[in-house]
Amino acid sequence: MVAEHYAVYWNYVDNMNFMEKMFKYLFAHVEGLKKKVIVADKDGVEREVDFSIPWQRIDFIDLMKKDSSIDIAQFCADDENELR
């Protein structure tokens, strides 16, 4: 099964809210659709993916700063070589 949507002028909060509602609907109406599935990661290690709602909301800029110590909000599109 593939689930996809597109909405003009929605921000990420609008999109996340819609996706959660769409998945909630799908879980309620598609027989046999499981909220928890086992998938293999890029190294072949099996992991459980849980689509239960609500989903954790992560700020991408904060995550980049935490994981790399780079504040990407201080850069613009013309700074791509500096970021590399």
Structure explained in plain terms:
This protein has 84 residues and is an alpha+beta fold. It has one domain (12-83). The chain contains three helices and two strands; from the N terminus they run H-E-E-H-H. The protein has a two-stranded antiparallel ribbon. A hairpin with a 5-residue loop joins strand 1 (36-40) and strand 2 (46-50). It is extended. It starts with 11 loop residues before the first helix and ends with a helix. The model has no long low-confidence stretch (mean pLDDT 90).
Kindly list the characteristics that best describe this protein:
84 residues, alpha+beta, two-stranded antiparallel ribbon, 3 helices, extended
What topology does this entry show?
Blueprint lengths: L11 H18 L6 E5 L5 E5 L9 H9 L11 H4 L1
Antiparallel strand pairs: 1-2
Q: Assess the beta-strand content as a share of residues.
A: 5-15%
The main pleated sheet reads as: 2 strands, antiparallel
Unreliably modeled segments: none
Helix content: 25-40%
Number of domains: 1
Distance between the termini: 37 Å
Tell me the total number of β-strands. 2
Series of secondary-structure elements, N-terminal to C-terminal: HEEHH
Mean pLDDT over the full residue set: 90
What's the alpha carbon Rg, rounded to whole Å? 17 Å
For the largest sheet, list the strands in their spatial order: 1-2
Number of helices: 3
Structural class designation: alpha+beta
Shape: extended
Q: Could you give a short description of this structure?
A:
The chain is of the alpha+beta class and about 80 residues long. It contains three helices and two strands. It is extended, with a radius of gyration of 17 Å.
